Model the fold of this input.
Amino acid sequence: MNRLIRLGAVGALVLPLIGAFGAAPAQAATCQPGTPPPSGPYPGTAVVANNFESGTLAGFTVTTGGPGTATVDSPLAHSGSCAAHLHSTADAGSIANISAPLPAGTADVYADGWFNVTKAGAAGSNVAYLRLFSGSSRIADIYRDNGTGRPYLRTTLPSGSTVSTRLLSTSIPLNTWHQVVLHMALNGAASTVEVWIDGTKVYSSNQVSTGATALSAVQLGSESRRQVADTFIDDLVVHAPTETPPPPSETCQPGTAAPTNSQPGTTAAATNFESNTLAPLIPTTAGTGTATVSTLLSHSGGCAAYLHATTDSGSLAYLSAPLPAGSPAASADGWFNITQAGVDGNNVPYFRFFSGSTRVADIYRYNNNGQLWLRVTSPSGSFVYTKLISAAIPLSSWHHVEMRVVPNGAATTIQVWFDGTAVYSSNTVNSPATSLSRVQLGAEHTRQMGDSFIDDVIIKSGS
Done:
């Protein structure tokens, strides 16, 4: 027997469903009315808590058109017996989405749901998970790219253009349930966005720029027509926190002693960023790149530096520590949490050592596989690469990185430690440098995408 239940809207219709919709007789046999609603560990008031076991889409605004449908079905469910089902095709006018209104003036929202995409459309399009709106403007959304199966975050800038950020380098398979959580707190150019997929935080930034001052609705499905998809949705929870996070000045811990280590030399810079400034490090930014102090993540205390660069034209963000003229040696020590990597074939830097305009040596996390690599510039200007760690360094986790360089031509010394373990040491590295001028954190190239939190930095020169 076909146990499919279809309750919802079909045809060109926008229908607010606020009260009881009138259950079909078959619902009692398939859905489980009376099942407690889902809940989440989020602050504020639950605006939505729905497992669709009522057999209706009550409380949602349903939008459908053409052959698009929004229903409650029983063949697939994450929990219980029923789930919402959005079906849209490539036919002219086909559309299917449901949305939940937010209280007037909402500036902070958590949206959490389980999604099973059973059919995707053509490459170049996507299947939407969660979308946040301010009036008719889409402010942020998470979607599965049809061409690669990878999830992306897309945010809308004050200019109306959008910024897309890849959240995972792996594909999300069809016909499987996955939990997606989106948190957004509006604060102009310093808005906060966090994303979790299957319980793992895959994105976190408090430097997202938006022109919105309030959020009005959470939407599931696409507002565009002919966006092919079959999506089952279950255990949806939406919370609107009643309080906004305190600003950095209230959460940093000024007066905290600067970090120290046992490396030789004279301290050129030592900071845990608890002063709520980047000093004594010097920030360089351009385009959509930002270098800020963040309270979102820290290794110690309440604050850390945060470097954010995108693939947008001109995007640039890095920090540098100048060394005394003619420094014969330098060491760099810090804690790094890379929460967003860039495109394949590129990397997210840890430390880079310079002699004038020449990058003498640097260590980085390679985007393709997450491995740790050392790159050295030879006297001819070509690069010599050495893989330091074969295993992937996981994103969204803190790691201790130390590097020491003593430039001496063909007898240059380079040492690298990762999480307290020596992973490289040689005093026969061939380099054109005989002195060092600065240490850099982040990339000097534009469009080198990455989100890095950095804490407890110590730069030393000499010896």
